[in-house]
Amino acid sequence: MESERLQIYALAHILVGEPVSTSPGCSQHGRTDMKPLIEVLLFLLDAYWWIVIIAVIVSWLIAFNVINTRHHVVAMITDVLWRLTEPVFRPIRNLMPNLGGLDLSPLIVLLIIYVLERSIVLYVYPNVF
Question: Which residues contact 53 (CB under 8 A, 6 or more apart)?
Answer without folding.
Answer: 110
